[in-house]
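Hi D.,

Good news: the full-assembly prediction came through. Inputs first.
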Amino acid sequence: MNYSTFNPHQISIKNNCFFGLPTTIEDSKIVFFSVPWDATVSYGEGTANGPQAILDASYQLDWYDFDLPQAWEKGYATIPINTYIQSKSDTTRAIAKKVIDYLELGNDLDDQTIVSELAMVNQESIELNEWVYDQCQNYLSQGKFIALIGGDHSVPFGYIKALTEHHQQLSILHIDAHADLRNAYEGFTYSHASIMYNVLQLPNISKLVQVGIRDLCQEEMDKINTDDRLILFDDWQLKNNLYQGISWQKQCQNIINNLSPKVYISFDIDGLNQGYCPNTGTPVAGGLDFNQAIYLIQTLVKSGKKIIGFDLCEVSPSKDIENQWDGNIGARLLYKLTNLMYLSHYQ
Ligand SMILES: [Mn+2]
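Then the structure:
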């Protein structure tokens, strides 16, 4: 760990590490693993640039954390953002866009060129999943925790798969505007809109607890109503409860009671109110306040349950490079989630 040039009272040095922290991967307890990929994004593109936007904005934060003083010395290291994956995302997304444009015209899948392009995108997604899985297996087997930074919401699949091989009975706390329970979307098996459908096919997933959901289709609602593992806390009900005087504390406790002792958090930034993520791919009105979301996770940690990993996805920077708001929120959320994950194991 090279702290010789690091002063936690001063400004960050731009060292290509999240929050300017000088920890080496070897000495780390937690690694920041970026997956700059948004090949199948259907609406607004740009989440492949999320990790870089969060990294750029992260230098601006102060390190003091009210839950975890001296968080900066706990051992968080950055795995460099993989530029090969990012360029692969760009080329794959160009093909995917042709398929999406074709389907959005109301065409059926009878054009052989489109069919083979669709197959190509699906193959690239499989390879991305395998890459994420291999990377995560590597760090998990070294006893490290992983903070995964997307990318669109398809990217944590390989990570969750790796975790299911290290843990029996894990639950997922899924914060999102969307249920992500579609069985493939626009023909893409590993679409961002299908992540939780795909995750439910994995072994050892005991519960999927969804919070903040406010945009879903009938097929997804049917799945929620028929699969015992699925528990929905939709945004409308959460807010109605609040308006009728049921405290957020009480609601958080209720949410957490549904989770097993080992919890994975999948955090889509669009679970928050759109003011916190104006450039995210598929924004929806409503959503959680920043502090509400943090309070939920603080309550989880206080309950004694362990956060065994998390992802933060769908942060997309503004086209105006001077505007770091999305990245700034992403960075603050990333720091807080990382600190709370740390605290859940070492308090
Ligand atoms: Mn979403």
